[in-house]
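S.,

Sequence below, as promised.
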Amino acid sequence: MFKRLCLAAMAASSVLAAPPKVIAVDIDGMIHPITVDLLAHALDQAANQNAAAVLLRLNTPGGLLDATREINEKIVASRVPVIAYVTPSGGRAASAGFFILEASDIAAMAPGTNTGASSPVALTGQMDETMRHKVENDASAWLRSTVEKRGRNVTLAETTIREASSFTEKEALDKHLIDLIAPSEQKLFEALEGREITRFDGRKEVLHFSGAEVVPYDLTMRERIISAIADPNIGFILLVVGALGLYVEFNSPGLIFAGVGGGISLLLGASSLAVLPLNWVGVSLLLLGGVLFILEAHFTSHGVLGTGATVAMVLGALMLVDGPPEMRIRLVTALSVSIPFALITMFLLSLAVRARRNKSLMGGEGLLNEIGEARTTLAPAGKVFVHGEYWDAVSSAPVELGGEVRVTAVEGLKLRVEPRPSQPR
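The prediction came back faster than expected:
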């Protein structure tokens, strides 16, 4: 019995002595639906492992408002405290990033960073005055409710929406938009050791990070792939390369590599763009560009259809993503992909159409109108030598041995021929 008590005491002391664990998640780049999944899984992992906190390393220009709402909902409902840390120096938590920073239990920034500029105009593009006021009022009410609950400067936070205000890390601290400035994660944990915080539901909790072990969130395979191709510019390139690869495979069956690579690229590109809100005008312009490329190969337009197809493709790429400017396909990407694609596609289409119009040199069609020599007397059947081969033939008129004949039809393994008129010498 005494031995069991000793073992239990040793186990309890080892648990108590175990350093606190912090799950670290990088939100680096645009905020979109895959970011929501990533954070949700990280919060679940932290809760399952009884982590002391989740550390969000923020460096983002912003992103989609709907995705940001979902992220904030998960942060305020988290069983584990969430620390938002804008890092590294030179980084930012702009637009949607500011909403995430203010929703977190602890808001911290590294020296040389900035935050703010949360105007919803950048999130939804051009809007009329009434719609702009509605979106601003909705976003402001949402931000006020979050900032007030966290005990930060509500009035100043609202100016990031109304006036697109931005703040350096020192300005944000002095004006009570964040809780502290820390030059490193170690200094951050030291500053938070023993601090009491009020969770979103009103509960008090004391933070302990002495000797904390920072564990990077382990991304799933899906998250790794989607995160790598989440940039709409990469998605557009993959989509175009995939379409070109499939076209080459359909026109030259048996290459295999072009078809397999094209199919994979097409699916990856579609997956990349599927997580983003698409503008159907942009999709329609891309489809129109494809149709015009095909018409250019069939009709003599002196390049008019091909030029129109290229313009439609560029405009379609620029309008494809219905989101803030940072999430749209850049002009340089649209031009550098669309113009080479247009040239390659028109070249391949013209080759295919020209090949179909040319007389076949293979099989029966290749023998039509060919001139051969009678190797036996044709009266009317016999043997002829045509195109380097011996054939059974039936002539429409008798032909002497050695006479020239012209092929008029191919019926299976037999030719129909006629005497070739004597040519003047």
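The chain has three domains: 15-222, 229-357, 365-419.

Coffee later?
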